[in-house]
Amino acid sequence: MGPISSLITMPGWLEMLIALLIGTGFGFALEQAGFSSSRKLVGMFYGYDTTVLKVFFTAAIVALVGSQFLSYFGLLNLSQVYVNEYYAGASIIGGIIMGAGFIMGGYCPGTGLSALSIGKIDAVVFALGGFTGAFLFGETYPLIQNFANGSYKGAEKIDEALGISTGLFIFLLIVAAAGMFWIGELAEKKFARPDITGEI
Amino acid sequence: MNPYLAGTMLGIVLLLAMFLSGRGLGASGGIKYCVVSLVGAVDRSHAEKSIYYGKYFENGKEPLNNWLTYEILGVVTGGFISGALSGRLKFRIEKSPSISNTRRLIFAFLGGVCFVYGAQLARGCTSGAALSGMAVLSVAGFVTMIAIFGSAYGFAYFFRKNWI
What we know:
The complex is a heterodimer of chains A (200) and B (164).
Chain A: H1 4-7, H2 12-32, H3 38-41, H4 43-46, H5 51-72, E1 86-87, H6 88-105, H7 109-117, H8 121-148, E2 152-154, H9 158-162, H10 166-190, H11 194-197
Antiparallel strand pairs in A: 1-2
Chain B: H1 3-21, H2 28-42, H3 44-49, H4 67-85, H5 101-122, H6 126-135, H7 139-156
C-alpha cells in the first residue's frame, strides 16, 4: 500500500496542500515543545534543560516504530520511502559545521523558523544568516564539489551496516534512548539554572 | 507541553509525511529553494550557467514550486498558531542578560550562516538529515546526528559566555 503519493498521481495543488499541512503540524509541534526559545534549545549543551534530547529521540522512535508497524501490516511499502544517501565525509564535516552554527545561533533551521513565527528577532536574523549560508554554498560549490560528492556509500541502512536485525537495532535504540532520558533528568538537577529556566 | 508528549506529536507528523508523501520533514531544503529562486530572479543567466543552481532551472522548472518550500511556509504558520494559542506572540530579542543585543544578533547571524552551509554539505539539517534519517534507519541520519550534537558539545565551552 502506502505511501499514498506512490499509489495515485496526485494533482500538483494537492501535493502542495499536503506539504503545507504537514509543515503546519511540524511548526506547531516544534513551538509546543518549547523550541521557539534559543535559551531552552542550548540548555541541551550546558545541561540545564534537556528537552531537545527528549523530544528528538521520542519523535524519531515514534516515527521509526510506527513506520515499521505500518510496513508489517502491509500498509506502508518502506522501499518507496526516501532513505537519505550517505556521503561519509560530507555528512561528518557538514554535521560539525552545523553543530558550531547551533551553539552560536541557538537554533537549527526548523526551530529558527518556528521561533521567528512568534516574533523572536534573533530568529529572524538567524534565518537571514541561513539564507546567506545557502547562497555561500551555491557560490562556493565549484570549489568543494569533489569533497561534497566524495566517499559515496549509497542509501545505506544502519541495521544492515551493523549486521544485526532491524528489530534488534530498534530495541537497542529504545534502550539507549531510555538511558539518555534518565541521564538528561539527572543533568537537569545537577546543572540546574532556575534563573534561566524561570525565564524561558 | 510535556516534552515526551510534544515528541510523540512530532513523531506522528513525521510518520504522516512518510505515509502520505513517502518522505521525511525538512527545513534547510526549503531555505535553499528560496535562495535558488532569488538568485534566479536577480541574475537568471548566472543561475542557469552555474553547476549548482543550473539543475533547479532545467526544463523551465520553478524552484519555489516545491514540496519543501510549501512545507516551510507551513512551519511558520503552525508555529504562529501554536504561539497564539499559548500566548507567546511577542516581538523580542531572546538572550542572556549578560550580553548585548548586538552581540546576540551577530552570533545569531553567524550561526544561521554556518548551520545552513553545513546542511547543504550534509544534504539535510537536524530535521531532514538527523531526525528523518534516523526514522528510516539511514546511516547518514545517525552519523549526521552524532556529528551535530558532538560538535555543539565540543564548541559549547567556547561560546558559554553567550548563554550561561
